[in-house]
Amino acid sequence: MMNCFPCFTSQKSSNPPSGNETNEHVENEFRPPPVAAVKHIEERETEQPPVKTFNFRELATATKNFRQECLLGEGGSGRVYKGTLQSTGQLVAVKQLDKHGLHGTKEFQAEVLSLSKLEHPNLVKLIGYCADGDQRLLVFEYVSGGSLPDHLFEQEPGRKPMDWLTRMKIAFGAAQGLDYLHDKVNPPVIYRDLKAANILLDDEFYPKLCDYGLNNLAPGAGDSMFHSSCVMDTYGYSAPEYTRGEELTVKSDVYSFGVVLLELITGRRAVDTTKPNDEQNLVAWAQPIFRDPKRYPDMADPLLKKNFSERGINQAVAITSMCLQEEPTARPLVSDVMVALSFLSMSTEDGIPNALPVSSFRDKSMSIALSRHGSCSVTPFSLLQKEGDDDSSSVSSESEDDDDDDDEKKEESKGSKKKKQEEDSDDESGSDDEKGQEEEHSQLEKPGSASRSSSSDSGSERESPIDESNANAQSSEIKYSYSSEEEEEEDNERLSSKSSCKSDNECTSFRYDSEPKNTSIAHDDHSDDDEEEEEDEDENHETRLEHVQSSKSEAQSIYSDDDDDDDDDAGESSLNRFEPKEEDHGSSDEE
Ligand SMILES: Nc1ncnc2c1ncn2[C@@H]1O[C@H](COP(=O)(O)OP(=O)(O)OP(=O)(O)O)[C@@H](O)[C@H]1O
Q: For this structure, is 566 an active site residue?
């Protein structure tokens, strides 16, 4: 049975509306008076998820009567079977929830309703459910490639170890899924159970998060046993505040994400009891190394055989260490992590990730930290200092040039950079160092150019992309930008001055002192051009979001200026069961 209700008619619903159900007037006739609280309760009682309802027999047939050979595995909330829907031939994963702590049909449907509203390419899609007698089953799309640990930790003979770029792409995709839950859904959804095993991969290693939002469906949810078993399940991934018994926030997910990122970088499990005592807990093992950037490249999975750029690993480890900060408020927003990873996951001709534009991040601390860590490989601070001394004026004056001038300069700079790289390749011993220095230089230059590009109408006039993925980098630079030129210059100054900071100050500057900011702050700084662009962007919003949500996307606009739209859209089909704060209920209750 497929039902559509007004709150599911946003782009998030995959089901086509049927008949007059989409007619608001008709719909309203059946609605109780708009008294928020009453309406909320009554809607919960009457609404049914806009996903398919299966009867038990259908799912028994699909899974060959839940035969052992179809069993994919068993987790904390029940067994998962591979099945084929007879009606369509679609492959599915059928999750048979444990009967222990069984939910009533209404309660179960309410949870499914919440789940069904979440839709993103990096989330395993809920297809339907079954509430038949005492059976409670969820039907998900089948993800064919297994889970991340299968590929990262299980070395099958003849299978190549996962390469660096693939690892970064997986991290980027997972970050996109998490960003959707945190930032595109209102109120935010806290994952609570992010771990490598919950990242499923398709045959092309495209990642999809599973088990999101299942907390209220897990057996015994709400009782004390549930809490303790949850610690067991996510041992190694749980944020320190969880073990301290404090409330979980989106930043707790960021911590868990940091652990996954660390696993991807090191090829080590979050907890590995086969290792010596002091290496069994991955985070504890990594903490001393985080404080010594020179050792970052040593953290890499030996199976990678050093096939990664030094800048890439330095920045990846820097991001990871930020995610794993003890204090939740010191951790970055997943949206900033996602932007950083978008750059690390792009293939470039020389294998060195593109410079990260300062304006890409909501919180500039991320770009400052990354530019610092990106330069760790050779002569980090002295180089930045030198450039700050020699070129800072040219950097800031360059930011005042018009677009054409800038493009010409970039072309020239690109040409000379390429030429230099060719020269460098003759001298292998110095090549890495010098490349690093060149990149460092561009890192200071690019933020300004990103800002300029944001006010130009097209990214196509910019330097020729090196390859398709690199073209994405160009467009992402343009679309991420939302800060004013003054802000950019300020950032450049900050970058130069940070380079000479003493370590204590640096630590302070890397902390994220604020909770997610309202991006309307950014709107204040918009030029008229930006506003025009904003209108254009609004029109293309839906299309663009689709691009953003896929690591295979053509363009990567994450920080669009139309966040409000996002919120509105997401609000329409938002998940209400996982909001961290009581006051967040308000808006969704009114819907
Ligand atoms: N949509 C899916 N497609 C393919 N395999 C899946 C799907 N969902 C789950 N699986 C697989 O089924 C098995 C059990 O999954 P499940 O999520 O229940 O357990 P878990 O993640 O290991 O533990 P927990 O639920 O306690 O976090 C895992 O091997 C998982 O990879």
A: no
User: Ligand 1 centre from 574 Cα, in Å?
Assistant: 24
User: What pLDDT is recorded for position 407?
Assistant: 41
Tens of pLDDT, residue by residue over 568-585, are: 333 333 232 333 333 333
Q: Which atom of ligand 1 lies closest to the CA of 214?
A: 25
- Domain assignment of residue 571, yes or no: no
More confident of the two residues 545 and 356: 356
Is residue 171, in this structure, part of any structural domain at all?
Answer: yes
pLDDT (tens digit per residue) in 513-544: 333 333 322 333 334 444 444 444 444 433 33
Among 574, 576, 554, which residue's Cα sits nearest to residue 566? 574
Residues 6+ apart with CB under 8 A from 514: 329, 363
Choose the catalytic residue: 183, 193, 301, 563. 193
Q: Which atom of ligand 1 is nearest to the CA of 233?
A: 26
| pLDDT greater than 90 at residue 238 | yes
C-beta separation of 488 from 448 below 8 A: yes
The verdict on residue 13 lying in a domain is: no
Binding site: residue ranges? 95
Position in ligand 1 atom list of the atom nearest CA 76: 26
What domain range includes position 106? 50-142
pLDDT, tens only, 412-446: 444 444 444 444 444 443 334 334 433 433 332 33
| Residue 437 vs residue 279, higher pLDDT | 279
Other C-beta atoms closer than 10 Å to the C-beta of 424 total 17
Q: Are strands 52-53 and 126-132 parallel, antiparallel or unpaired?
A: parallel
Residue 100: what pLDDT? 67
Amino acid present at 20: N
72, 152, 233: residue to mutate for ligand 1 pocket, most atoms within 8 A of CB? 72
What CATH number did the domain enclosing 138 receive?
3.30.200.20
Among 297, 329, 357, residue at a domain's last position: 357
Same domain, 238 and 186: yes
User: What's the chain's Rg over C-alpha atoms?
Assistant: 25
Q: At what angle do helices 428-455 and 485-498 cross, to 10 degrees?
A: 150
The verdict on residue 330 lying in a domain is yes
The finding on whether 193 has its CB within 6 A of some atom of ligand 1 is yes
587 C-alpha to center of ligand 1: Å?
Answer: 33
Q: Are residues 176 and 54 in the same domain?
A: no
Domain-terminating residue out of 300, 327, 357? 357
Omega cis (within 30) before 188: no
pTM: 0.61
Quick one: 245 and 188 in the same domain? yes
pLDDT in tens, 61-76: 999 999 999 999 998 7
- Domain of residue 345, CATH code: 1.10.510.10
Same domain? 268 vs 301: yes
Count of domains forming the chain: 2
Distance CA 466, CA 409 (A): 17
Ligand 1 lined by 185 (C-beta under 6 Å)? no
pLDDT of residue 451: 29
Nearest Cα residue to atom 29 of ligand 1: 73
166 with 191, same domain: the answer is: yes
Q: How far is ligand 1, taken at its centre, from the CA of residue 76, in Å?
A: 9
